[in-house]
């Protein structure tokens, strides 16, 4: 894609930390708005995202616009000192447009065209959609591009949420153009995808189709390229809107990403450099997750954001004050969680906490979604906690603009690897990328070790420990960068299936894990995926589930061996020392205890320190600027925790330490005594 415009110098939308949420005044009579701004002031709200789904309420008919309510809303917010993150409302095309041009809507793999009525019901290759969208964005930017209230542009909403893939004919044509640009020639495409298999050689570009249908066995190269193309097609739309905005306005431009624990629907890491403020929407997923796991999921997502936004703050653009409405059973947050979860993001680099949405909607699809101002109004527990959070964020103003202390551990995560792992005719179709990388990150989190979660192109120079979990698709450059960590004395951990394929999805021959086998001094000749419920014993007392391999040593030593199954006696976990560095291989999906034991070795060997020593579930992260440091302590457990930490607690306004109690479920943020910045 086009050269990125790093937003390092973009002004932050608010003075200090940002606080607020999506504001949808168009859903309410005008009289309610006065109540809104009064209550926003009470809660300390200083930024709202306005107009996200307001295309149809402004452009009421083709090229006929009623700006009156939006003029009024922006003016009112400005008069009350509330900054506006103004959205281009292109996520939800108006009904008149979808009715006149139903071909705008995306087509699913089975040929079904999405009907109107949802959101993001547009195909990024639709020339009609693009024309109408940009025309409206142009009008919006001309009208408000230099309005003093507008401090940030918010392009669309969660691009890819609902339209991550489109399989229509326009997309097929776009895919072919993208392939031409990437590979140069049809012969190169045939070679990259290995189309000799099943006689799928292409003799003309028109023969190439998106992976339509339901057979579930597309050529892996085609599949991966279609995923990449789809991400780039959406990014191209974002960039087209951004370009129009920048034509009329100097206000920084962003869009809200959706980054969680596993593989994302689009490759947002490649989008982040094109945003002035890297912004994420994060909702705690519950299902059956116990407390602690929820918060770990949050920490992992936040660490991914920091990995996409090196050295500069990012912004939590959306989260919830309670149950969302799109999960099967929408869990309310327990008392204290709104504050703790929000400050968990701030601890890890977000310069603010924003929510969907300000006032709960009475009508419409999301009428039962939680909000900052719930249906029950200001006498609700949620409102009280929202006001409390606003007070905390004000108390933390001096933290704004500080950087999270540089991590010495990193984990390489790539959406393409996640896509490859979870699709097609795999040896095991139920492996989960999110589960595997979550297990390793969790063990570090449990030990209060900060870990940047970075995309493959990241420079690894500053890290003493690099973890590479199931990174199935790896190019030579990434493999070389990982090897360089070991060569300069660092520690690397590679887990099963990593490096098995090249960037085209072709298997690297000569023994698994292809790209890393030499570095690891160990290789395997055969995978032994396990059946549901099957476990293989290990000689350290642990067990493997899901995945095992027959490993051979070639310079490495066995640290843990298989103890049962036909692999008994063979290496399961290996280590190869190189000078001061070492390279570890884990050939099996270990349980949490096994992962923890390996992580203990890795930390001891690499010298990567814990922020402090505490029980699992006590989260500790430091942000700093020059010789000033702030220690965030978040207690996700049900017991009070006592830790060795001292300073002035910005939240309670008291000096604490040298031993500090963090109450069960509570948070402290300590301004620590001055000390020289490291390095
Ligand atoms: C987000 C979306 C919001 C709202 C929210 C509900 O994904 O951006 O507009 O729908 O989910 O949780």
Automatic annotation (TrEMBL):
- InterPro entries according to UniProt: Beta_galactosidase_C, Beta_galactosidase_Trimer, Class_I_gatase-like, GH, Glyco_hydro_42, Glyco_hydro_42_N, Glyco_hydro_b
Q: Which SUPFAM superfamilies match?
A: (Trans)glycosidases (SSF51445), Class I glutamine amidotransferase-like (SSF52317)
Q: Where is the Glycoside hydrolase family 42 N-terminal domain?
A: 22-395
Judging by the UniProt lineage, the source's domain of life is Bacteria
GO BP field: galactose metabolic process
- The answer on whether this UniProt entry bears the keyword Ubl conjugation reads no
Q: Which GO terms describe its cellular component?
A: beta-galactosidase complex
- Beta-galactosidase C-terminal domain segment(s): 617-672
Binding of Zn(2+) occurs at: 123, 166, 168
Sequence ranges assigned to domain Beta-galactosidase trimerisation in this UniProt record: 407-608
Query: What are the boundaries of the region Disordered?
Result: 312-331
- Reaction(s) this enzyme catalyzes, per UniProt: Hydrolysis of terminal non-reducing beta-D-galactose residues in beta-D-galactosides
| List of catalytic residues | 158, 318
For this protein, the record's Pfam families field holds:
Glyco_hydro_42, Glyco_hydro_42C, Glyco_hydro_42M
Family to which this protein belongs: Belongs to the glycosyl hydrolase 42 family.
Q: What is this protein called?
A: Beta-galactosidase
């Amino acid at each position: 894609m086009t050269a990125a415009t790093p937003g390092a110098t973009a002004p932050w939308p608010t003075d200090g930390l940002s606080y607020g949420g999506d504001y949808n005044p168009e859903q309410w009579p005008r009289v309610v708005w006065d109540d809104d701004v009064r209550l926003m002031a009470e809660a300390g709200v200083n930024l709202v995202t306005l107009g996200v789904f307001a295309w149809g309420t402004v452009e009421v008919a083709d090229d006929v616009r009623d700006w009156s309510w939006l003029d009024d809303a922006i003016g009112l917010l400005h008069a009350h000192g509330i900054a506006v993150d103004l959205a281009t409302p292109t996520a939800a095309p108006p009904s008149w447009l979808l009715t006149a041009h139903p071909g705008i809507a995306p087509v699913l793999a089975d040929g079904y065209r999405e009907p109107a009525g949802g959101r993001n019901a547009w195909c990024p290759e639709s020339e009609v959609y693009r024309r109408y969208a940009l025309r409206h964005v142009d009008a919006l930017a001309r009208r408000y591009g230099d309005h003093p209230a507008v401090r940030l542009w918010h392009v669309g909403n969660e691009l890819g949420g609902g339209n991550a893939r489109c399989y229509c004919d326009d997309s097929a044509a776009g895919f072919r153009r993208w392939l031409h640009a990437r590979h140069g020639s049809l012969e190169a495409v045939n070679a990259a995808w290995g189309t000799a298999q099943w006689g799928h050689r292409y003799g003309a570009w028109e023969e190439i189709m998106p992976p339509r249908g339901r057979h579930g066995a597309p050529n892996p190269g085609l599949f991966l390229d279609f995923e990449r193309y789809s991400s780039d097609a959406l990014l191209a739309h974002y960039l087209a809107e951004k370009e129009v905005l920048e034509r009329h306005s100097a206000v920084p431009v962003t869009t809200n990403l959706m980054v969680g624990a596993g593989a994302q629907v689009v490759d947002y890491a490649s989008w982040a450099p094109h945003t002035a403020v890297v912004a994420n929407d994060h909702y705690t997923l519950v299902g059956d997750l116990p407390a602690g796991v929820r918060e770990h999921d949050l920490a992992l997502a936040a660490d991914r954001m920091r990995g996409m936004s090196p050295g500069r703050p990012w912004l939590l653009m959306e989260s919830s004050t309670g149950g969302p409405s799109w999960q099967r059973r929408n869990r309310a947050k327990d008392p204290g969680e709104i504050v703790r979860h929000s400050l968990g993001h701030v601890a890890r680099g977000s310069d603010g906490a924003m929510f969907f949405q300000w006032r709960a909607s009475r009508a419409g699809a999301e009428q039962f979604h939680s909000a900052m101002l719930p249906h029950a109004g200001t006498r609700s527990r949620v409102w009280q906690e929202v006001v409390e959070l606003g007070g905390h964020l004000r108390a933390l103003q001096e933290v704004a603009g500080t950087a999270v202390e540089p991590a010495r551990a990193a984990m390489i995560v790539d959406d393409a690897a996640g896509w490859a792992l979870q699709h097609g005719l795999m040896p095991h179709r139920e492996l989960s990328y999110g589960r595997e990388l979550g297990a390793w990150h969790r063990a570090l989190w449990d030990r209060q070790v900060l870990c940047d979660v970075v995309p493959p192109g990241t420079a690894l120079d500053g890290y003493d420990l690099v973890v590479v979990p199931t990174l199935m698709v790896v190019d030579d450059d990434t493999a070389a960068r990982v090897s360089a960590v070991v060569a300069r004395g660092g520690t690397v951990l590679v887990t099963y299936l990593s490096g098995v394929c090249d960037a085209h999805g072709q298997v690297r021959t000569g023994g698994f894990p292809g790209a890393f086998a030499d570095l690891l001094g160990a290789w395997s000749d055969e995978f032994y995926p396990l059946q549901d419920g099957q476990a293989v014993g290990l000689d350290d007392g642990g067990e493997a589930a899901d995945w095992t391999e027959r490993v051979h040593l070639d310079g490495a030593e066995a640290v843990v061996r298989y103890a049962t199954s036909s692999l008994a006696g063979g290496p399961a976990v290996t280590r190869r020392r190189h000078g001061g560095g070492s390279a570890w291989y884990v050939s099996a999906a270990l349980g949490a205890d096994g992962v923890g034991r390996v992580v203990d070795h890795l930390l001891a060997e690499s010298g990567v320190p814990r922020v402090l020593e505490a029980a699992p579930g006590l989260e500790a992260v430091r942000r700093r600027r020059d010789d000033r440091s702030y220690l965030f302590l978040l207690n996700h457990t049900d017991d009070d925790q006592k830790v060795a930490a001292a300073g002035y607690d910005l939240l309670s306004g008291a000096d604490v330490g040298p031993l500090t109690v963090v109450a069960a479920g509570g948070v402290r943020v300590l301004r620590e005594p001055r000390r020289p910045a490291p390095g």
